[in-house]
Each structure stands twice: as C-alpha cells, then as structure tokens.
Amino acid sequence: MNDISESRICQNCKIEFVIEKEDFKFYEKIKVPPPTFCPECRGKRRMSWRNERTLYKRICDATQKNIITMFPPEQKLVVYERDFWWKETFDAFKYGQDVNFDKPFFTQFRELFSKMPLPSLLNENVVNSSFCNCVHNTKNGYLLFASMETENVFYSSRVIGAKDSLDLFGGFDQEMCYENVMCDKSQRLFFSERSMECFDSMFLSDCRNLNNCIGCVNLRNTSYHIFNKPYSKEGYKKFLSNLKLDDYTNLSEFKKKFEIFKKTLPKKYANILRCYSVTGDNVTNSKNCRFCFDAYRNLEDCAFSTHALDLKDSHDGYGLGDNSEQLYEVIDSGANAFNLLSTICVHECRNVYYSYNCHNSSNLFFCSGLRNKSYCILNKQYRKEEYEELVPKIIQHMNDMPYIDKKGRIYRYGEFFPSELSPFSYNETIAQEYFPLTKEEALKEGYSWKEKEERNYTIDIKNEDIPNNIKEVEDSIINKVIECEHKGKCNEQCTEAFKIIPDELSFYRRMNLPIPHLCPNCRHYNRLKQRNPLKLWHRHCMCKNPKHAHLDIGCPSEFETSYSPDRPEIIYCERCYNQEVY
Predict the structure, then answer these.
(1) What whole-number percentage of the chain has pLDDT above 70?
(2) Can you tell me whether residue 366 is helix, strand or coil?
C-alpha cells in the first residue's frame, strides 16, 4: 500500500496527475489497480456512455411500433419499448455467451450488448412523460432529463422534487420556478442561481431566505430589495411595474444589467454548505470528500463524484448513490447498492462488475439486462463455486490480453468501458455538456461525432416576429414552428426551431413572462454556462478589506475553487465572504 501521493502520466491526454494516498487505500480495498487516466479523462470516458437528452424515433424490435428512444436508429442494437422491456417477456439467458479466452473481454461484452434487448429509455415509475429520459417518479414531464420526484416540469435537467416549473438545471424542491440554476426550496423564483428559500423574486445570485427581491447578490433574510438596496413595499412594486419584464426586450436588457452588477460583488470560493473537509462545488451535508460536484446530501469519504446523494466510500461516478456504498467508475448506479465496479444503470445490486442495466442482482460479471439474478457472466448462469473460480481467471485474462483501442490506449481490469464501444457519439452525451469539444477536437481524441441532421422545417414564425409581450401572444401559437434565434449556428445541439405546448403557454401567462426566443437545447446550454466546470484551481482569497481580521495586508487564505484564475469574479474565502454578505 502506498503511504504517499504519486504523480502519474495520463495515458490519454499525456498530462501529469496525482494519485493521493487516500486513493491508493480505496483502490486496495476494492482490489483494483490505480487508474491510468487522469480524473478529467476518466470523467469524459464515463460520460461518453451517458446519453440523457438526445432522443430519436425508432422501431421497437419486439412490437414493430414507433417509439422514442435514446439509441440512434443507425446503431445495430436490439431496442424494445421501455414498458414492454420491463414486462419480462423474454429470457435474458437466451443471449448468454461462453467465456472466450481468445478475445479481449471488452470485445465480448460489446457483442453481448449488441444482441441483448435494451429498454428504449431509462425511466422508472413515470406517468404521461414520453419525451423524458433518466427520470424517476415523474408525472406529466416533457423534455425532462436526469430528474426525480417531479410533476408538471418541462425542459429541465438534474432536478429533484420540482413541481409546475420550466427550464431548470439542478437544485431541489422548487415550485412555480423558471430559468434557475442550482436553486433549492423556493417558489416563484425566476432567472436565479445558487439561491435557496427564496420566494416571489427574480434575478438572484447566492441569496438566502428572500422574498420580493430583484437583481440581488449575496443577500440574506430580507425583502423588497432591488440591486441590494432596500425599497418600501409600494416603491418596490412601482419599480417592478415600470420595468415591464413581460416584454422580451426589457427582460433582455435587465439580464445584461444584472450580469454587470454580479461582477461587482464577491463570490464565495465554492457553494459548500454544512460540510467538513470537502473540496468541489455545490455540496451539502457531507464530509471527507474530494473533487465532488452537485452532491445534494450526505456524501462521506468520496472522491471524483458528480450528481450524487446518500453515498459512502466511493470514487468516480455520475448520477450515483441513494443509500449506496463502495462504488467505483459508475454511471447512473446505486439505490441500495454495494460494491459496484464499472457499471451503467445498475440499481439495487451487490458485487456487480462491468454490467449494463441490471437490477436487484448480485455477483454479476459483464452482464446486460439481468433482473433478480446471481452468479452470472456474460448473461450465462453459473453455480456459485464455478463463478468464484472463473472470475479471477477472467481478471487475469483482462490483464494478459487487454483491450487496445484505435488510439492505442490500453484497457485492463479496473478501467471503465472504452469510449469507442459506446453506442453514442461524443456530442450525443453529457460529456459534451461538461467537457465541450468541437468536432475536430473530438475526432482527434478518438471519439465518434454525430453529424448534424438535415432539418426541413417549414417555419411558421420567424424569430424576429415572435411577439415581444406575453399579452400579445394568441392561443394560435400552440404547436406552430418557431425559429430559434441561433438558427443552428451554435455548438449547442440547436434544433433550429421549436414549439410552444399548451401547459407551457399557460405558465408564461400565469407568471407574466414573455415566451423564449431559443430552442430548449440552446436554453439548456445557456444554463450550463452559469455553472462552473468540474475542475478545481488552487487560489488565494482576493479580499483586501481592512475591516476584516486580516487588516490591510490582504487575506492569506488559500483554497480549491472551480473559478479559474482568468475569470473576472472576485473570489473570497468562506470567512471573508461571510463577513461581506448582507
């Protein structure tokens, strides 16, 4: 066991990275060798297997009906409509394969993956939510992704516990909210970021317990403020009325003013609440965690984990946890799980390795689509003794005959699935959201790229002809083809056009908001730009306020932050920030 940190060279990007002594202890516990990819390249590799938002029409291979699916039609896969797949009308063992010690094991898994029926979408307990993916306990959702416990939520991603809301990214317990990023426990909150317990407010940043405020930053426990200045109730309402934010032009101008105002006030180095010994961003109620992001609650002894909750002693994952422990290199895995290695959509399982979409199972190795099974390899059943004898031989085989991809990268036991075996192109997956690349960059790094589909829309409403004021919008706009402002000229999966659905129009009218000028994908990418990257930089506190404890010599505090040094924000340590907030 290593008692000190070690520097290694990533076999992918060729950049030096550090493996800490705590990492070595974890790898020894789960009996895997240290990784050969750096944390960022490991993240991109995992995420290249996760398509959340790119949906297609395809024929169900079981019923021959048209279905909505995340799998591109050109991929030679067997895809069943999601509800049909869960009816257990097929025998998963029928597709089982014998172990072949003359082939790399990743190659054998891809052969199984290609013939084993796959559910069209990764949803669970959904009602009236056909155009959603990776959602759980969802009712009346539309273009909702990677979310749970929601009702009447549209055009949103990675939210928990939202209701009657549109265009959200991250956060939990939001009701009648719109265009928020990482906001919590709020109602009627619009165009805000990293704020919680706020009501009847707009354009807030890093605020707590506010109501009837607009354009405010770092405020606490107050009401009737505009750009951090107090107003009387009557004065506030008069100011808000004069803004006329139901008009798109006025709203756009106010957004610009708010962006300028935000940069004049300090930001806390990270959004870390009620935590002990944690680095990352957007982490709550956790301890002893490194490089964790969007951890909603209760992480302990974890590292390199994103979009997680209720998780212990785990490294390297996205969408993981929910009362789970000892997970490594996983995507969308957990839910009362223990000891998972390199899994994708594996829930309520124990001792499962290199498997896809398996549930309520244990002791699986390189399996796909199994439920309530144990001691299986490549979807073939073994006796317990046979399984335990064969697995060490397979691990040795993976080391003796590793998979080598087209770029010459070597995948032995402990490495996640190679990206070139993924059924998705890089820009179809969340890898493009968190680590955006151009087509040229993606191809150079060995990823595939999905060419833009030719769209032959008949545009009913040109972007410049969209009514500016919600009061000017007639019912006839429903289902008309509206031109997106970007017109497909961005790198944001622009659909070039979009429609307004009835419930959406009702929301805009109820909240007195103008209809958007961007398609849902472009709006999603605009929200992504408001969150920081999954990276950390070592920086010093920028506070030089002589009224603080450090007098006039400048604060000596250092920290890890997701604000890069070349950004314009003023970044404070927690102590200085707390002394500044109102």
Answers:
(1) 99
(2) coil
